[in-house]
Specification:
Chain lengths: 220, 139
């Protein structure tokens, strides 16, 4: 795959190294001549000095044949414009933008950026996974299908402990996929499966009904 | 008319005071309060500290009731992003964007944004002036 990385900062640099070692054709676009030289000295001609927001620069590095453009500069607005220029001027099939402000995720999607990655969100998700008391963790988002896979833990004080799955008022859009009890093997829940304290439930739901699902599983 | 201006530089401050003099409701947004020194003491609008590429800051500036949003910071990309927020998130009826880079300006204009490239306008103006003087010299 031919991948263009915008921004040769620390993130761009390590991304470049990782993608090169996976055998991809990668090119970093970096405005700063010194950073460009450092990368070129170490890794060969994989860094091009220029502004990744300029259509002409992107044309020079053959963005038209790129499979993917990843914008990882430290500024959200620069990442947005890079992705938009790549999309609209060079028809790059897949664009990925790094976000500083996690609240920009919805906006970027609306404006045509295919994937957004926010370090803040990633760290928060990691914390949620680490903290066992946390009620519901989003494991995976299936953007194309508009679904999320969540992990809900049943606390001992939950009012749903001892209730069967059929007694729960689950949202229509939700499906329980798996129950991992605190002891014993994971099993696929049936309608008469009774919830136990310490159960970990893997469920699939729409983002809008995530909260409702949590409430249905743990009690009000 | 309610107008929100992002960037209180020379152009932003001047536009703000002109629109204010004509009795419009003007809010100027800048992420450096020192920029507000450019506003005349007679300025009757609101000068607000905040970053225009932040939805929250735009909301505080009253973007939801605004008739016009104008982006006039030094950064083309900041202008582009704030205008897209104003247009696509807050549905401001008229959004105007300054973009220095002519190529970028053409692209966003093609995407339906009302854009102005000072680079293009000023170069054209100078060219016309030069040609006029040329005619004069020939006389």
């Amino acid at each position: 795959m031919y991948i263009i990385v915008i921004g040769g900062g620390r993130l761009g640099y390590y991304l470049l190294k990782a993608l090169l070692s996976e055998g991809h054709e990668v090119l970093v676009l970096e405005k700063d001549v010194r950073i460009c030289k450092t990368i070129t000295d170490e890794l060969g001609s994989v860094c091009f000095r220029g502004d990744g927001c300029e259509a002409s620069t992107l044309a020079e590095v053959g963005t038209g044949r790129a499979d993917m453009l990843v914008a990882v500069t430290g500024d959200d607005e620069d990442n947005l414009v890079s992705c938009q220029v790549a999309k609209h001027k060079h028809n790059v099939p897949r664009t990925i933008a790094r976000l500083r402000n996690p609240q920009n995720a919805a906006l970027f999607k609306k404006l045509g950026v295919d994937v957004t990655i926010s370090t803040t969100d990633l760290i928060i998700e990691a914390i949620e996974r680490e903290v066992p008391t946390h009620a519901a963790t989003e494991l995976l988002t299936l953007d194309e299908k508009g679904l999320v896979i969540v992990d809900v833990k049943i606390a001992p004080e939950s009012t749903t402990v001892g209730k069967a799955v059929k007694e729960l008022s689950l949202p229509k859009e939700s499906k329980l996929a798996l129950i991992i009890p605190s002891k014993g093997n994971a099993h696929v829940p049936a309608s008469n499966t009774v919830l136990q304290a310490g159960d970990q439930i893997i469920a699939i739901t729409s983002p809008e009904t995530k909260e409702a699902l949590k409430v249905a599983l743990r009690g009000g | 008319m309610k107008i929100v201006i992002m960037g209180c530089g020379r152009v932003g401050a001047r536009l703000a005071s002109l629109m204010d003099e004509e009795g419009n409701e003007v809010t100027v947004l800048d992420n450096d309060t020192y920029s507000f020194r450019r506003l005349p003491s007679s300025f009757g609008g609101t000068a607000l500290f905040g970053n225009g590429i932040d939805e929250e800051a735009q909301k505080r500036a009253g973007i939801e009731e605004a008739d016009i949003f104008v982006a006039l910071t030094q950064g083309d990309n900041r202008n582009v992003m704030s205008c897209q927020i104003a247009k696509h998130v807050f549905n401001v009826p008229r959004v105007m964007c300054r973009i220095y880079d002519p190529l970028r300006e053409e692209m966003y204009s093609a995407l339906g944004m009302e854009t102005i490239s000072p680079t293009k306008v000023f170069a054209q103006l100078l060219k016309e002036k030069i040609e006029k003087t040329g005619e004069k010299a020939e006389d």
